[in-house]
Structure formats: C-alpha cells, structure tokens
Amino acid sequence: MLIGAKSFQNREEGHAERLSENASDLYFSADVETDGPIPGPYSILSFAIVYAGSFDGHKFVRPQDYNQVFYRELRPISDSFQQEALDVNGLDRDRLCAEGAAPESAMTEAFHWITANANGAKPVLVAYPLSFDWTWLYWYFTNFCPKGSPFDYSRCFDIKTAHAVKAGIPISRAGRSKLNSYLSSKRQHTHHAVDDAIEQAEIFANIFEWAGVYERTR
What we know:
Layout: H1 2-21, E1 25-34, E2 44-55, E3 60-61, E4 69-73, H2 83-89, H3 93-99, H4 103-118, E5 122-127, H5 130-144, E6 156-158, H6 159-167, H7 193-209
Parallel strand pairs: 1-5, 5-6
Antiparallel strand pairs: 1-2, 2-3, 2-4
Helix pairs in contact: 4-5, 6-7
C-alpha cells in the first residue's frame, strides 16, 4: 500500500514538474462573420477574440469579466459574396470595401494582442463549432500575418465536441440549441462578433467546469 501511495505521489510530482516546464493554456473565444462559406474566394468581414479562461492541468479559472476583447472589421479580399451570409450578419459590405481595415494590419494586430495577453502561456482558440472559425482565422493569419498563427497549427478546443463527450450524446445532437439551461449563456446570439464570442466564452467555461454525466463517485 505504501509502495502504491509512493508511486502515486511520484506521478503527481512528475506531473507538476512537467507543468512547471510548460506554460499553461490560455483560452481565447473567437467569432468570425464572413460573406461566404470558405476563405479565399470569400472574405472575413469582422471578427472578435475574447479572453475565455486558463487551465494549468489542475485548475480552470474563468475570467471575472469579458472585457479583454479584440475586434476588427475588415476590407473584403475579393469581389465574391453570398447575399444570404450578409443577411445573417447584417454587415454593410460596401462600407467595408471603403472603410474596413486591411487584412495585413488587422491580423498582425490580432497576433500581437493575443501573444501580449497570453504573457508566456500557450494561446488556445476555442469556438462552437470550431471548424468554421478555425478555418477562417488560420487561413487569414497564415496569409496576412508575417508571424503566422498565434495558435500554431493545432492549438484549438472544439466546444461542440466537449459538449458531446461530457453529455454522452452524438456530435449530431450536440449543437448549441441542444444545450441544457445550466450550460448555456444568458446572452442573445446576435451575429455580432463581439456578442457571440462572449456568449461562446461563457458556454465554454460552463462546459469546462461541468463534471458531465459520467462523473464517478469517489
């Protein structure tokens, strides 16, 4: 029994040592509003990135508020767009063609904002679902920011997958509309990037802290 206890202690100490050698994860919730389904032929019109919490391997800490926000509206990169996408987000594409920020400056500013707020920790992108926002932001960072993506090529967290795993349901039934009230946010989903990134950050924290349906008694 003592050998087992010592072995467990050694594993715990080894885990703590590894964590001390590697920075904690800092999570950033992102929402992207676009004028079409894929980057390249179509464009990001606006995006927001919100600090969403940290995890050191033992403890998750949610933000006290959601005031750490980066938001930009961008100039389109092509003439192609889908009207139904504009109908959803309500952005004036003609205005952005004249007044939107250049993608090069917006993505470079976003990179430096994220790395400055990470303060040595590892930035991780979170979204619900991840596939859409990650695809757009990774493409824009690698194309328009000289330093590339602050999230590297794979530091990301899909809230939809986490919901499916913890709730014990298929991915096909893990959409945002299927969230229980104690996991959802009280905020409205407005299709404004800042509002939706904050809503998403709250859902992320709720799911991260939730033990899930398979919680084991000790």
